[in-house]
Amino acid sequence: MVMKLLEFRTLLLKIYQKARFIINPIVKFFLSMVVFNWINSEIGYDQRFASKTIVLLLSAICAVTPGGVLVFLTMVLMLVHVFHASILLAALLFLLFVVLYGLLMRFSPEEALAAVAVPVLAKYNLHYSVPMVLGCTATPLSMLPCACGVIIYHTISVIKTYSGQQINLKNLDEVIGLFTGVVDAFLANKQMLITIAVFALVIVAIFIIRRCSFDFAFIVSIGAGVLVNILGFLVAVLHFNVSINAGKLILMSLFSGLIAIVLEFFKRVLDYTAIERVQFEDDDYYYYVKAVPKVNVSIPRHSVKRMSDYRDEEAEEETPATGSYAAFAGDTYEEDEEEEEDIRIAPPKKKNRFSFNRSDYIKETPAVPKDSDIRYEEFDDSDFDEDGAGLDAEVIRYDRDEDLSAFGMKNIGPADDAKPADDGEYETWMTLDDDDNNN
Amino acid sequence: MLNNRKVRIMTQLAIYEKGEGKKDFRLSKFYKTDYARFNVLKTALMVTLSYAILCVLFALYKLQYILDNVLTIDYKAIGWKALGIYIGLMSFYLICTLLGYSIKYARSRKKLSKYYRMLKKLKDIYREEDAYAEGAAEDYDEGED
């Protein structure tokens, strides 16, 4: 089961490596659309900026820019909408963003997306998954953008409450009244502080446990995260008299844990260590290199084991196992080579009927190198002079004498009587005489 | 003829230069103390700005109380309290910044030293190639003689 999953992950990784340059912008585009649509549905006061054209345009920008741009544009769009509803609230929101950036966000810019993810996912009660994923993938410093996300979420709920309140900006009493009301509502929100604290604890708990060296530390860490999340909020309910739906909390915490497990499992797929294309040069060449990272889990190759008894050995040799298997590799079907392993079963030695020694029963013949393992180099006859003295040293460096010895061959350069092949090239692999082999 | 070992090292160097190396090179222009001080300064400015905003918002929030008790408020005590909070906040942030950026600098130097080791390997390969080219040329001359 686990191997199947690992193979599936490998398959996804291969697909991702190939189509990374298309997948990344598309995913970012749709994520951005979700975020901007969420803003428009929550505080879309300015209809001009709530239009689909603007959403598509902003999403297109975010699709080809780093994640920080999405965060910035989200905040700008929020300010624009709130500004349309109330200048005072917009000013307060702007100051809040400056404070959040100055005190929290700027220390962990890599995880700034968490500040957007928390309020967006909170609509579906899936915001519990954000600290769990951050605990799995980031450092405890990620609790800062996570806290920002919680603050932004509760700020929006306060703004929604007070946005309909029209005031005369020239009337100081009205301004102070609105301002005091907003701050009171903000400070009285115990749930915000509790959520920040619980999320920070979840991140720290998962981070500490996942770095331990015991078996299944990763699964245990997420389990601990789920437990901390549930217990933290339940304690808050009991101690601070906060209203939280316990059933929904437990259910969504477990579901968030599941999301964290799945994301952690596929982390390598989402990782940016995909194909690299680099260009460089030396004195002789320009290099355009495509570096493909190695995949850890290889998709198994089908192997054919021929089991034969000594008595049936001859009969087996007359009817060798044939046939080919199509192995699924990446997104293409390839005709895979058979790996044949010859295992001979000898009759057991009658020393002790109760003793069993594997070597008494099975003798494994030494593996014969396959043709594909041997590297053949072909040279043009212009590479060496008549004596073979001008043979390029580079070729000799890469020869694999150990493989060739099995065939009684080694690279001795062109033979005196070497004949040109059909295409006018010489073969350099020469069979040695028995005397040479003995030497 | 292509030297695979050289190409492999050059590829790794190019990937590093293209990716996280950019940040490390920028960082390597600083001494550790200068880098840490520079970031501490930036943090101090941001903390001061943020604290000032919070103070102004707090003053606005308590504006009614301030207007009512404008003559009886102990400004000195409030000032000392605000200063104490500011110093405490600033100290916390500065210590964290100093530690954080020192660790970041040390990590960056570690990666850079690995990069320089690979550069040295590349240099050795070039030296080998030069030596081989010179040797081949001498052999050729001797053969002609």
Short structural summary:
The complex is a heterodimer of chains A (439) and B (145). Chain A is mainly alpha-helical and 439 residues long.
Q: How are the SSEs placed, and which strands pair?
A:
The complex is a heterodimer of chains A (439) and B (145).
Chain A: H1 2-43, H2 52-63, H3 67-85, H4 87-103, H5 114-122, H6 129-137, H7 143-162, H8 172-187, H9 190-210, H10 217-240, H11 246-265, H12 267-270, E1 276-281, E2 286-291, E3 303-309, H13 313-318, E4 325-329, E5 332-336, E6 339-345, H14 358-361, E7 362-364, E8 378-379, H15 393-397, H16 401-405, E9 409-411, E10 426-427, E11 429-431, H17 434-438
Parallel strand pairs in A: 3-6
Antiparallel strand pairs in A: 1-2, 4-5, 6-7, 8-10, 9-11
Helix pairs in contact in A: 1-2, 1-3, 2-3, 3-4, 5-7, 6-9, 6-11, 7-8, 7-9, 9-10, 10-11
Chain B: H1 4-18, H2 21-28, H3 32-61, H4 63-68, H5 75-144
Report what the structure shows.
The complex is a heterodimer of chains A (439) and B (145). Chain A has 439 residues and is mainly α. Chain A has 3 domains: 2-270, no CATH class; 300-367, no CATH class; 373-438, no CATH class. Chain A is built from 17 helices and 11 strands. Chain A has a 3-stranded mixed β-sheet with strand order 3-6-7. In chain A, strands 1-2 form a two-stranded antiparallel ribbon. A two-stranded antiparallel ribbon of chain A has the order 4-5. The longest helix of chain A has 42 residues, at 2-43. Chain A starts with a helix and ends with a helix. With 145 residues, chain B is an all-alpha fold. Chain B has one domain (4-129). In chain B, helix 3 (32-61) packs antiparallel against helix 5 (75-144). Chain B is rod-shaped. The two termini of chain B are 27 Å apart. Classes of the chains: A mainly alpha (439), B mainly alpha (145). The interface between A and B is medium-sized, with 29 and 30 residues.
